[in-house]
Amino acid sequence: MRSEIDETRLGRIAAWMDRQVDTGRLAGLAVQIAHRGDICFSERRGQRDIGANLPVTDDTLWRLYSMTKPVTCLAALMLYEEGAFRLEQPVADFLPGFGQAGVWAGGDAPPEQAVPLARPVTMHDLFTHQSGLGYPNAEGRPIDRLWASAAPFRTAPGWTMADAVAEMARLPLWYQPGQHWYYGYSHDVLGRVIEVITGQTLGAVMQDRIFAPLGMTETAFSFTPAQAPRMAACYGHGAEGLHQVAPADDPAYRAPVTLEKGGAGLVSTMGDYQRFASMMAAGGVHEGQRLIGRKTHEMMVMNQIGGDFASRGPAHVGDRPGTGYGLGVGVLVDPAAAQSPASPGRYGWSGYASTDFWVDPVEEITVLLMTQMVPSGTFPLWRELEVAVSQALA
Fold it and tell me: FRET partner for 214 with CA separation of 20 to 30 A, picked from 116, 118, 203, 390?
């Protein structure tokens, strides 16, 4: 039975959006839903910049943060299809010396106390966040403090991913390759591998292979002076409510940007990212043009980690049962365990500023949420929106 949209129930999504602004959770947001490729819901609420009293509009520019990752992985898989690398191939074939610093010994060991790699870090490890790379977090372990102080992603003029990855290669990994699913810098390193293979910057590769074919004219690692008035400010939420954490005219994204981070660097509009999401929902095809092969797309959106986050992740990610990971997207493998109304095989990813997208192939829907609230776990926005969308399916 093919799903349909109950248009009378779409109003509940609009009401949910109203509540986010009216209760002071968010400054502004936009939600868009496509069903079988056609937009069936597209609304905006609130302000992109409270101080300037500017509303959210169709062409508002948003920081994607980790919604950059699926784009980077798609670009890499295009090279994979051309024979540029094998998934089991060591990353060190492209980044000599990567992994030579070994793996942190763990426990209370100082960060410089490392053990050798049990096996090389592979390209598959980078795609699936099983490389042993992480993000420094609030646990304050010695390895986290070391990486935080090293600060490979610097704002120094002219600093590039070549510089950042060279710094990263001097540091031990958090875990052995393949030991855990551990979210972190893997896709930033993957982006650098793309640069080495092609001889281009990551942004140039994305422009040539993804943005131009899809007509994504507003997506890049920076915004231009002409685009600056449309950038959204970024907000946090504390005891006194909303507060701005980054201005609309954010110097971190003001052109030119030389540090093109494959894990977190893009800015985009709702319309542009819809083109990417719709191509993914169509199995890698846009307006009759195939960007990626059918079998490669299937591989990208199937679970690749041999379990879910709860079983494959270290203890601090054990609260995410039912969701696995493909080659650049999260994949719902057990809706009951995830306590989700979505279908098995639903895939997508989110960003640090609470943006989100997902594709439900069974229901033939694509959902996009754009806002700018950090960190992404401040409110359970995608969980609430997931229910609001699911209840509108007939």
Answer: 390
* Euclidean distance between the first and the last CA atom of the chain, given in angstroms as a whole number: 10
Task: Answer whether 262's CB lies under 8 Å from 72's CB.
Answer: yes
To the nearest whole number, what is the mean pLDDT of the chain?
A: 96
**Residues taking part in catalysis:** 66, 69, 183
Domain around 104: 85-198
Same domain, 119 and 178: yes
Task: Give the number of domains in the chain.
Answer: 2
Q: What is the pLDDT of residues 213-271, one digit of tens each?
A: 999 999 999 999 999 999 999 999 999 999 999 999 999 999 999 999 999 999 999 99
Q: Can you tell me whether residue 121 is helix, strand or coil?
A: coil
**pLDDT score for 340:** 97
- 80 falls within a domain: no
Q: Tell me the pLDDT tens digit for each residue of 93-125.
A: 999 999 999 999 998 899 889 999 999 999 999
Upper half-sphere CA count for residue 23 (Cβ side, 13 Å): 9
29: in domain: yes
**Residue 200 burial class via C-beta count within 10 angstroms: exposed 0-12, middle 13-18, buried 19 and up:** middle
Specify whether 213 is located in the same domain as 274: yes
- CA 235 to each of CA 166, 250, 372: distance values in angstroms, whole numbers, following the listed order: 32, 12, 6
Structure tokens, 133 = 């790379």
Reduce the DSSP state of residue 115 to 3 states and report it.
Answer: strand
pLDDT of residue 137: 77
Q: CA dist 242 to 166, 214, 231, 380, Å? A: 38, 35, 18, 16
Domain membership flag for residue 2: no
Residue 384 vs residues 15, 34, 116, 317, 348: alpha-carbon distances, Å: 12, 18, 44, 20, 16
Same domain, 11 and 110: no
The whole-number pLDDT of residue 156 equals 85
